[in-house]
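Troubleshooting: if your tokenizer reports a length mismatch, compare your output against this known-good record of 321 residues.
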Amino acid sequence: MTSRSAEHVTTGAPALEIQDVVAGYGGGDVLHGVTMQVYEGGITCVVGPNGAGKSTLLGTISGLLNPRLGQVSLRGERLSGKTPRQVLDMGVVLVPQNHSLFREMTVRENIVLGGYILRQRGLADRRLASVLEMFPQVTDWLGKKAGSLSGGQQRLVEFARCLMLDPSLVILDEPSMGLSPKVLKSVFDAVRLMHSQGKTILLVEQNARAGLRLSTHGVVLENGRVRLAGSGHEVLHHPEIGALYLGGAVTDSSGQASPAAEAADAAAAAIAAADAEAMPAEGGGSDPAADGTAADSTAGSGTAGSGPVANGAAANGTAPR
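Known-good structure output:
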């Protein structure tokens, strides 16, 4: 069995380097010497069970947490110790797990807000035009209140908003959370589109099988430590990791895919549309407007703040995942 993630493994230099990071909250460490890389122009997917430290890792990268030991650097420049606003100025944008749009503002206003730190005259208008060219379906929603959109539509608007800064690193925190399988295709298609446009992406995904199929690189985080790292294909097809995190080993002892794993892999491919050629989309369900999914009740309250908050990087205050 082959995965599209194995076909496009990026071999460039690391864009983001995390070296021996120890970090946590209060008196307890959650990350224990984490070392990993996010490669230039690739999609790196971090998976792991609840409590593994994924939220803590993202908070440390985005400046919401300072590591107690170790460091985080972006293309050779240290991120550790910088404020969220300084991290944002360096081109790192985080789209959080919970919906973060201002519900009573229009879609256009929400997207334009993503470029609030742009100072060059006319640049925001040019960026908006570029974003709408990438996500043309969003054009039809520009005059609507963000709170009236479905969960999948809100997620696409959040992607559009984060691109207003033309970020050098896009961090996506569980973009599939709370979305139906039909909507997930549009969301993962959007992730693949950003990747095709040259964006470097760090993806934390609860749907581990779909996320790894989508990605060039994979990292398994467990108890605040890196358990395994490699290409998305290698991590996806690692027997032990499959048994622990992916709902069953991908292959059996003979090296052949087990029926259960085949079924799970096929379901993941359908959800993520990770193998579009082998499993073509049905009936043009690419526009989440057609899915009728109600807007998530946890959609952003519109609380403003400094730094990446206006672009989606808000601390959610929940227990570390």
